[in-house]
Amino acid sequence: MASKLLRGTFILTLGTYISKILGLFYVIPFYALVGEHGAALYQYGYVPYTIFLSIGTAGIPLAVSKFISKYNALEEYAVGRKLFQSGLAIMFVSGFISFLTLYMLAPVFANLIIADDDQISTVSDVVMVIRAVSFALIIVPFMSLIRGFFQGHQSMGPSAVSQVIEQIVRITFLLIGVFIILRVMDGTVVEAVQLATFAAFVGAIGSLAILIWYWYKRKPHLDNLLKRDKGTIDISLKEIYKEIFVSAVPFVIVGSATMMFQFVDILTFNRAMAEIGMANVSEQYFSTLNFKAHKIVIIPVSLATAFSLTLVPLITASYVNRNINDLQRQLNQTFQVLLYLTLPASLGISLLSEPMYTFFYGYDPTGFGPEILAKYAPVAVLFALFSVTAAILQGLNEQKFTVLTLLFALFIKLVLNIPLIKWFETEGAIIATSIGYTVAIIIHLLVIRYYAHFRYRLVFRRSILIILFNIAMFAVVYLVYHLFTQFLSIESRIQSIFIISLSALVGVIVYFYLSAKSKLLHVLFPDQVKMIRKRLNS
């Protein structure tokens, strides 16, 4: 059973990472086709869609998978099937309502987003883009529940494969469609972005087709399980869904935190820029921050957070069993691992912002894009810390604090965004985001300290060590980077790849050497170090 669980987790994780990688690198050809205007328009549609998707699903697919797994373990297979069938109906209705709501509210959002006639995009442009992406809300919640059903049966293959197929279909349709509209049919950027956002609907259909195929393939086995049903539990769906909403909704709200912060930017950025007479460049600046820079900055967040969150179930078990020593050790390890992985990655992106920007989006002679990326990159540490501290609070069964702190942080962002953008332009939005996240993280840390009786002394001491290693690594990479730029050009995409690869390699070697010498690696990754040593000695 353990090996099956590990195999399933590996398959699902692999599928998730492949999807994320595809979702990252498609922006290179996409941006080359649609430019600044198209990138801004795309964000105007996609961020509201993502928030409405979170509202439409309300965490039900993930929660349903947990309940099905729970009742399957008790051999009460009929309960899981009944929950699945009712969940499909709920997801279809909630998805359709979310679609209608977003479709009808599109003009309202568009009028809030477009603040001045000097902007490149018009209200009607934004309305068309939002409405194009809204159709995906009809299918995606329904599809997500089927994934949850398979995961509840410890079958991760269908979810992993459908995720990858969804991305492949979406990206293929998007890139081919945008190319045909712009280069063959001589269409407009607005028409191209409409089709690009509608690609979410097409990708969802591809994913749903794969899941239906898996369903018919595995239905005989699932029906055999029903025949073995004990039938000793008669629990009402009302009770189950009450528990689902109480446990899942706060986690879903927190999972949408980044998108909600971006949504505040969508509603306020153009308005603030228009008020200081910069409406003609506001969309260019907005797309640089919220589309181009954000796509790169989120890379280390995904990797570090995924690694750290593997410790959260252990934290939950220790807390429930009142095993204080294990809880303290696991919290220490979680915070240290998070900082150890995220800090060097964000510093590396900041230092190598010019070649990185060139690699993804082409050379920027103004230097504005790399400058924003360099200033935005350190915020990755805050993104990761917020996600992990929120997950820890979930493990401590204090998720109500995560909702309250997020709402408070969003309020701070909303209040500060316009004045800070007026004073510092694009950097003002970064500062407002940083302040909002910092306040939320501090509250999370205080709540963890109170409920877990956790002391941060060891984390603080190790953090100083990690910071010192990062300073040493940064200094070496800084010298190496400037040495490479003497004979390699950051204006070339190919040469930028070499600069990034060689500089990153030097940074990894320095960081790894210092960590190994100080035994920090052994403390943070004891199981991994033991496994490597065992393989080397065998």
Automatic annotation (TrEMBL):
**Coiled coil segments of this chain:** none
Q: What transmembrane ranges does the database entry give? A: 12-34, 46-68, 88-114, 126-146, 167-185, 197-216, 244-264, 296-316, 337-356, 376-396, 403-424, 430-452, 464-484, 496-514
Top-rank lineage group of the source organism: Bacteria
* Keyword annotations: Cell membrane, Membrane, Transmembrane, Transmembrane helix
Q: Key word rRNA processing present in the record?
A: no
Q: What is its main location?
A: membrane
Choose one Gene Ontology CC annotation of this protein and give it.
plasma membrane
The answer, when asked if Nucleus is one of the entry's keywords, is no
- CDD domains in the record, alphabetically? MATE_SpoVB_like (cd13124)
Subcellular location(s) per record: Cell membrane
Q: Which InterPro entries match?
A: PG_synth_SpoVB (IPR024923), Poly_Biosynth_Transport (IPR050833), Polysacc_synth (IPR002797)
The membrane-topology field of this record reads:
Multi-pass membrane protein
Q: Output the PANTHER family linked to this UniProt entry.
A: LIPID II FLIPPASE MURJ, PST FAMILY PREDICTED COLANIC ACID TRANSPORTER
What's the protein called, per UniProt? Polysaccharide biosynthesis protein
From what organism does this protein derive?
Fervidibacillus halotolerans
- Species lineage, top-down? Bacteria, Bacillati, Bacillota, Bacilli, Bacillales
